[in-house]
Each structure stands twice: as C-alpha cells, then as structure tokens.
Design goal:
It contains 1 helix and 21 strands. Keywords: Signal. This is Tachylectin.
Length: 308
C-alpha cells in the first residue's frame, strides 16, 4: 500500500480547515469577520412537533440556538418520511417553509409561515397537497434536490428514496428511474448538485463510506467510489451542508445513543478525500424520531451543494 507522507497529510488537513470551517470570501460579506460554517437540523418528535437546532463547527461543535416549534405540525405518529425543509425569510417577519412529508402511506408537499419567533405557526398559513400513495414503511432514505442555474432559475428538482436496496429517483412529471444494487447502504445524504449529476455520501452496514454520483441523463449509470473502509456503520442519519466553495460539513446521528458527531469533509476525491472529525456536538438533542436538513433557499446558484 502506498503511504502518504506525514508532511503531505498535515498540509492536506490544514488546507481542509481553511477551506471548510470558514466560508470563502465570496460567501462572507465584505467588512465582516469570517463566519464559522454551520448547519441546521430539523427533528420531528413522536408528537409531531418540529425542533430546529443550529450547529456551528466550533471546537467542540455546539448548538448555538434552537427553535422549538411549531408544535403539532405533523400528524402524531402517522407520518413515515421527512425530507429537507427549505426556508425563506418573510417580508414582515418569520419564515416561509416548504418540504415533503408522508402521512400514513401518502406523500404530500406542504407550505407554512412562522411568526417572528420562527417557532409559532401563523394561523391559516399551513397548506398541504397530496402527491400520491404507496409510500410504505421500509424506506431508509428520503429527500429532494434543487438545482439553480447561474440566472437564478430552478432547472431541476428530483426526489429520491432508498427502498429494499433500490435507489428511486422521481424527476419532472414524477417520472421514475430505478437504480438497483444498494442493498448494503444504511443511509445517505446529498452533498452535490451540478448541471450534469447529483452526488450522495452513503454509509454501509459494514462500516465503509462511499460517494454515489447519479448522472442526470436518462441513461444514467451510478458512479460509486470508496471514501473510507470502516467505522461509519453507527450512523442512522447523515446530514450535509455546504461550507465554502467546494467542501461539506457533515453531521452523523447515532440513534442508539441519541448523539451527533460533526465532520469537515473536503471536496470528494475517493479515498484521497480528507475527513476531519470535529467531535461530538454539545448541547444537542437528537431524541426525535426523524431528522432532516433545514436550509436557506437562496433562490440562486449560490445555494447549490458543491461537495463533489
């Protein structure tokens, strides 16, 4: 096995910290101090409440603030899958929020608005539209993707689900394409959306970590690359957020201990990908029954995930 010189490894780790833990200059307003990279995770309680925790890549990583609510947003114990929540600031106060969720065996899109506390539902604002049925138990991953072109137009939105070792992708008009061969995948998270492909980071039941690149073309064949060979089997949920111009902040949630661990991940490059463990997230509560990314929908290409 070819070994990487210690000096080269240290240089790579230093470059990673510079690139990932602090956003690029383009992402930081002029005249302000560089902000620490962060991500937000939404958790649904057994009673259907939403909790949003904001986690910063400090040392050790910590929860900087929490929004408890809205309460009773989702039906009590009746939903099965919970996808990423897109947020936009409301003109007066509060947030607009959108996402996908299943109630019983049907998939719904939803929208609502919060008040200025971000924790209370504005009366009459909740809207829910049924998309279709057949969303049964057994799916171990579910989420959607958005891709904006440089003109600020959404040119693509896909929905993904992992079910019995098959990755399902629904594109415009709910056209479905199946990608078999993923029976060993425990869970996954989206880390990159580009004009020609979307990439996931997936952990396997045996402990390895892989990237799965799915081309957008109709004749797509997944490109799977190993990243690590062991120790990643403990996470039931992975949540990723962009950090800087080409890197990823990764949260792994272990439901056996209800704890989360944060990692800085360089631009995906197979086994040469640099991953730095930042530690256990302090002040966090991961006792919810489902967790998903909560992100700011920038409405332009600056919001595209860029980890691969």
């Amino acid at each position: 096995m070819k070994r990487i010189p210690v000096a080269a490894a240290l240089a790579a780790a230093t470059a990673l910290l510079a690139a990932t833990l602090v956003p690029s200059a383009a992402a930081t307003p002029q005249g302000t101090a560089a902000a620490v990279c962060s991500l937000s995770v939404g958790s649904v309680t057994a009673g259907g409440d939403l909790r949003v925790q904001h986690i910063a890549a400090t040392s050790p990583p910590s929860v900087t603030s929490t929004w408890d609510g809205p309460k009773g947003l989702y039906q009590d114990e009746d939903w099965r899958l919970f996808g990423s929540v897109a947020t936009e600031e409301a003109v007066a106060a509060g947030q607009h929020r959108r996402g996908l969720v299943t109630n019983d065996t049907s998939l719904y899109s939803y929208y609502y608005r919060t008040d200025g506390s971000y924790q209370v539902l504005e009366p009459g604002s909740y809207e829910q539209t049924k998309i279709g049925g057949g969303w049964t138990r057994g799916m171990t991953y579910f989420d959607s993707s958005l891709y904006y072109n440089t003109g600020g137009t959404v040119t693509r939105s896909n929905v993904y689900a992992l079910w019995d070792g098959v990755l399902w992708r629904w594109s415009a008009g709910w056209k479905v394409k199946l990608f078999p061969g993923f029976g060993a995948v425990k869970t996954m998270t989206l880390i990159s959306t580009t004009a020609t492909y979307e990439t996931f980071l997936a952990n396997l039941t045996g402990g390895s970590l892989y990237t799965i690149r799915i081309p957008i073309a109709s004749n797509a064949v997944p490109v799977v690359k190993p990243v690590r060979t062991r120790t990643w089997q403990g996470f039931e949920t992975l949540i990723a957020e962009k950090c800087g111009s080409q890197s990823t902040l990764l949260l792994g949630i272990d439901k056996d201990t209800n704890s989360g661990y944060l990692y800085a991940v360089s631009h995906a490059n197979g086994t040469a990908t640099v991953i730095k463990g930042l530690g256990k997230v302090t002040g966090a509560d991961f006792t919810g029954v489902a967790h998903a990314r909560v992100f700011v929908n920038t409405l332009d290409s600056s919001g595209n995930l860029n980890g691969d």
